[in-house]
Design a protein that fits this description.
By secondary structure, this protein is an alpha+beta fold. It has three domains: about 30 residues; about 130 residues, Glutaredoxin (3-Layer(aba) Sandwich); about 260 residues, Rossmann fold (3-Layer(aba) Sandwich), CATH 3.40.50. It is built from eleven helices and 24 strands. The strands form seven sheets. Strands 8-7-9-10-24-23-20-17 form an eight-stranded mixed beta sheet, sandwiched between helices. Strand 3 and strand 4 form a beta hairpin. Helix 6 runs parallel beside helix 9. It starts with a helix and ends in a 6-residue tail after the last helix.
């Protein structure tokens, strides 16, 4: 009987495993307990995959026998592709190739746009450089998109989903960058264009009476104008907003000239026009104790050296609204911003997007800039100030949306041989704003979806010591407590057995 029982149990377990295997082939699911939902696909991805009409092929090029940290990236990518296949009802198919197995496969990967990187790996107590491939080619209807290198610290879902979206969209929405009032040319926004060109077609646009089809642009962008707008230009903008258009405005009302060390008013006339919409931008500088630095030549030990000095005219903003445009942003640096207040009526919804720290001050014109000024607490008594905002409402026939940032060149790289490199969140603030107004798929949520990192080297020595001794002592204490509890329990059992009339 025991043998029959064991055999029945084994057969039942085998049957359960077979059923689970069959179900797992048809349905893919997993539990995600990570902070930020690292392994959970967004609604945007699910909608895009569910609406695929043609098969998408993903050829992943990964080196075999990767070091453990990189092998994890490969496993995660493979699991993600399996989930993509399930959600797309089989319209996403994939295969993995090892470019290091032969020269032909390596040439195929490189010619497709997947680039190898040199990775230092430890092998038998010595460091060796290994050429590693970790990229993918996404194909649809004879068109290809390439992920040259899958960054372990980036958003794999964003890269993969946007590539599929880019291939599957036939008519890209138009984004117009307004020109003619001293704005930087489109090629001065290298980092922004890298993001926008994935889903949009970007064109320059001039606001004059020859514009007959201004409404073809999903969103208009006005960034860093230095000259005045004509009445005709404002009429075009009014008409665009009346018809429910989307407008992104980044401009300065005041600027600091570090050559003359003077603060002055910028020669555009956007502020009065915005005031008619209920958006008041003050002619003054926002100063923040939480700020960026400028390099100043100082004499140290007989030598002239560049020394970074805190410069409150460059606020580091880390307080953001809890909404799609600013979701995931950590820190944006703005140059010479001004405070925004809303004076419109309740028919419009005003949302402060970026707010300075508690230690903020405001300087009115005229201003003489002293780079080496010793700032005191009394300089920062104005409280938090709004420096970027969203206004939604009916300006005419239909609801329109407008984002205003009071720093004109916060997302401008510049032109020439050495354009400046911007921190990612500066780029994300501009691109997220345009995305939020222009794209209904929700891909904006993926751009700033990151892995929460808590490296030990950023902890204080006291906290490291606490964690170390906690890891060592807590298990011992638990074992001791369990031992004492068990000792007491057994003692009670012995005393109970010694009682007269005890029956087990």
């Amino acid at each position: 009987m025991k043998k029959k029982s064991y055999l029945s149990t084994i057969l039942l377990l085998i049957a359960i495993f077979i059923v689970v295997a069959v179900i797992s082939e048809k349905f893919f699911f997993r539990f995600d307990l990570t902070e930020g939902g690292q392994y959970s696909l967004s609604k945007a991805t699910k909608d895009i995959l569910n609406n695929l009409e043609s098969p998408v092929t993903v050829t992943a090029y990964f080196t075999a026998d990767l070091p453990p940290d990189l092998a994890k990236v490969k496993r995660n990518f493979q699991d993600m592709l399996t989930e993509y296949n399930s959600l797309s009802h089989g319209n996403v198919v994939f295969k993995f190739e090892n470019p290091n197995k032969d020269q032909a496969t390596e040439n195929e990967a490189i010619s497709s746009g997947v680039r190898p990187v040199l990775f230092k790996a430890r092998e038998k107590d010595e460091m060796k450089q290994q050429k590693v491939f970790m990229g993918a080619v996404i194909s649809l209807n004879n068109q290809n998109e390439v992920i040259p290198f899958i960054n372990p610290e980036g958003s794999i879902e964003y890269d993969l989903t946007t590539a599929i979206k880019k291939l599957s969209v036939s008519n890209k929405p138009l984004i117009g960058f307004v020109q003619g009032q001293g704005e930087p040319p489109i090629n001065a926004y290298q980092q922004v264009m890298t993001e926008l060109n994935v889903l949009y077609q970007v064109e320059p646009v001039t606001l004059n009476d020859t514009i007959k089809d201004i409404n073809k642009f999903t969103t208009l962008v006005i960034s860093a104008p230095t000259d005045t707008f004509s009445l005709e230009a404002f009429r075009v903008l009014d008409k665009y907003l009346d018809n429910g258009g989307n407008l992104f405005v980044a401009f300065n009302t005041v600027e600091g000239d570090l050559q003359t060390l003077q603060g002055k008013k910028v020669g555009n006339n956007l502020a009065p026009w915005l005031a008619q919409k209920g958006i008041r931008v003050q002619d003054g500088f926002v100063l923040d104790a939480s700020c960026g630095s400028v390099n100043v030549m100082q004499q140290m030990g007989g030598f002239n050296m560049q020394t970074p000095i805190k410069f409150p005219y460059l606020p580091l903003v880390s307080h953001f609204a809890d909404m799609g445009i600013t979701k995931g942003l950590e820190q944006v640096m703005l140059g010479f911003p001004s405070p925004i207040t809303f004076t419109g009526d309740t028919a419009f919804r005003f949302t402060p997007l970026a707010i300075t720290s508690e230690n903020t001050g405001i300087q009115e014109l005229p201003v003489s800039i002293d780079v080496q000024h010793k700032w005191a607490q009394n300089d920062f008594k104005a409280g938090p100030q709004t420096v970027a905002a969203l206004v939604e409402g009916n300006f005419g026939k239909d609801n329109a949306r407008m984002v205003v940032v009071t720093s004109g060149d916060f997302a401008v790289n510049g032109t020439g041989q050495r354009p400046r490199q911007l921190q990612p969140d500066n780029v994300s603030l501009m691109v997220n704003s345009i995305d939020w107004m222009s794209d209904a798929t929700g891909l904006i949520d993926l751009r700033t979806k990151t892995i929460t990192s808590r490296p030990l080297d950023q902890l204080s020595d006291a906290k490291k010591a606490t964690m170390k001794w906690g890891n060592f002592l807590v298990p011992l204490i638990l074992v001791i407590i369990y031992g004492l509890f068990r000792l007491q329990w057994r003692r009670k059992q012995r005393l109970k057995r010694m009682e007269e009339g005890y029956v087990k």
